[in-house]
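Possible regression after last week's pipeline update?

I re-ran a chain I had predicted before the update to compare outputs. Posting the input and the new output here so someone can diff against the archived version. Not blocking, just want to make sure nothing changed silently.
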Amino acid sequence: ALLERDAVRLEAALAGAPPLLAAAFAEGLATPTPIAAGLPDFCWRSPHKQPLPVPIVSAGEPAEVMQRLKAGEPFVLTGSRLCMSAVGKWTPAYLCAHFGETALCTVFESADANFRYWDGRKNRGNYHFPDEAHTRKELLTMRDFYAKTRRALTNPAAPRAYLQTGLVEGVGAQLVRDFARFDWAWAKSLSATLGWGALSSNVVFVGMAGHTTPAHFDEQQNLLAQLCGRKRLLLWRPADWPCLYPFPLFHPCDRQTSLDLRAVDLAKFPKFADAQPLEAVLQPGDVLFLPQYWWHHVENLDDDCVSVNFWYVDNAQRDVQLPISEKANVALRRNVERMMAEKAGTERAHAVFAELALGKPEAELAEDTRSVLDYARVLLRNVFTSEEVIERWLVELTVGRFT
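New output (post-update):
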């Protein structure tokens, strides 16, 4: 009976699973082992849907690796030589010794272990947000950052610090030598093979156990290489965008969920219960392919957790392909939101979105509100042929985000 119930749950979960993942289960190539059972208490557990495991692929199967990269769906790559010169070596102590005496690193500070980012430069909507609810950014030397993390280990009340800094000029010679021994031939080949742009940056992440980055998405393709400690990621596909209720485009927390996953109010945000998470725990040496526009909630499972990523701008398929893809739909949402704000002004556009989210009949809307909405409809007729689809799309753009 237990196996029958598991089979029913799995079948229901796979209804919304990525195609390659569903195929892997169907062929018996992946097993829905719940990772959450052995995780620390601080880790997020889904109260609604059991996370499905992100597929694992060996670097010894290059054809399958390339197939999954072209499919644009996440997987964990094992046995990769991408960062072997740094795996197990780039500990915080090693970075402290070799990063450079004067090189300044970007460090985020939080009163607790939750690191919700805040960029005041984006706040064209004049949104208000309590200071204690977001992080503070500062520039520190690696030595000062390391000292700060040691203090936090012995003083639970101390602020938490999370280093997320680019590898740029000024780092020490030993790190440069390690960096030069990355598998750059393979990393650079991805641009030509997949139609991606050039590698835009490498960012080093150094944090402690429990440090959490709330669910967000990036607009670039990402390879995340785990160097020291373990990191857990919960992923949601781009189609779950309405279920994660992102902050408005001109909010300082743009591209992040407005939900606190630790206590989601389903009466206010009911669609979250429909979002199907995927789960991966990265061990040192693992590389996660994290496609653009995929949501990811990140947790450090160990102290002295170190990762480095490879961000690529995706130049492929810049023209809209019909029917519109998941990731193109996310880009379309952002572009329509931006163009409506440019036409009406950010604060007026916010008011229009809020009225639409309330479900007011068209006749009750102010004339200038209808004018802005008509402008959006004209834009969307270039993509959708059904007026019903356009109206549903506009409501989905606004519900839970502007009220």
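Follow-up from reviewer: compared with the archived run. The CA atoms of residues 220 and 263 lie 29 Å apart. Marking as no regression found.
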